[in-house]
Fold this sequence. Notes:
Elements: H1 2-29, H2 52-84, H3 88-123, H4 135-142, H5 152-163, H6 170-189, H7 191-214, H8 220-224, H9 227-252, H10 262-279, H11 283-291
Helix pairs in contact: 1-2, 1-3, 1-4, 2-3, 2-9, 2-10, 3-4, 3-5, 3-6, 3-9, 5-9, 6-7, 6-9, 7-9, 7-11, 9-10, 9-11
Amino acid sequence: MNEARIGVGAGATALGYTGYLKSLAYARQRPQGRPAADKDPTAPQVPIVAHPDVRRMLLAQKSYVEGALALVLYCGRLLDEEKTAPEAADRERARLLLDVLTPIAKSWPSHWCLAANDLAIQVHGGYGYTRDYDVEQHWRDNRLNPIHEGTHGIQALDLLGRKVTMRGGDGLALLVETVRATVTRAWKAEGEAAELAGPLGAALDRITLVTRRLWSTGDPAAALANATVYLEAVGHVVIAWMWLEQMLVVEAAGGPGDGPDADLHAGKRQAARYFFRYELPRTGPQFDLLDSLDRTTLEMRDDWF
């Protein structure tokens, strides 16, 4: 089942990435409008990739699909280590970490790479809603992935109801320990990676505190009422971890420079910045809601609908 669910996440990532690449190509080719500072109506139009809001949509897609890809590949590595690591302790560590990450690896790409497909349609404008371009087909194909092999809500219940509590919380403790090791490496590396380490470390602390808070009442129904919010918040923290790992690799390769990988590295840096500035902050209100033990959905009655 782990492999099947990770396969769903991989398929969602592939569809999201394909839509991103097609919308990027379209944005580079489609001329429309002029820069905001250029008031000359006779000036030639610019490709829409020059417009800041189009860049925002492309950058969001890049941060989603490349973050999801990193997570899927990491889980694939854990699948291999679970079966082939020489030491029994390493095989067990891989299995436990994979158990915790599987609901995230299935659901986060299924949710956010679908959002990337939605943005790919938006970049195309009206053409995105026609069959002249493939992006609408990619969205429709990807819409299945939050449903099969366990819906988004089922993965949320699995994560909060089973995976973070199994073996007395050992799985969650291992995940926190593993992410914390990356945060520590980033602090030591200094540079921009160290700047990103602070927000990720703070979000990691909140996972531990909120999880403890949710299960402190002894009421499983109350704890699980907002499990989907929990899944989405923890998922964002995990993807931020994936981006910090990528930032460390880029920084280890040296400065921007003019080498063959200069654009690749610059793009990775910018996508990491986007995720930490635009996406990771979403988790703050989500953790606040979880910490409040809100009962709005739990107390809703059938006849009130």
